[in-house]
Design the sequence.
């Protein structure tokens, strides 16, 4: 799933398509359809990164305050990540 989403994002940003004015009109319609998917994918990636960072802080366990913050962040991120996974599937 992530490979397909990455391919969509790559196509969304393809400068060769933008430079070809003949195909630009066709591409703008496709671009409009891809925008919500690409935006959701980027948000999902950011949440995964935040989750991974929180898990690292939790695993390190060096600072009790940081551990508590990481637990809270994970608590908030888990349902959001699940929601985005459903949305992107």
Sequence:
């Amino acid at each position: 799933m992530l490979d397909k989403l990455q391919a969509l994002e790559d196509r969304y940003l393809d400068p060769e398509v933008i430079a070809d004015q003949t195909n630009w009109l066709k591409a703008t319609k496709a671009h409009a359809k891809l925008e919500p998917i690409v935006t959701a994918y980027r948000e999902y990636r950011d949440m995964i990164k935040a989750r991974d960072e929180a898990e690292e802080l939790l695993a390190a366990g060096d600072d009790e305050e940081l551990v508590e913050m990481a637990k809270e962040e994970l608590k908030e991120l888990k349902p959001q990540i699940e929601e985005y996974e459903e949305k992107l599937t």
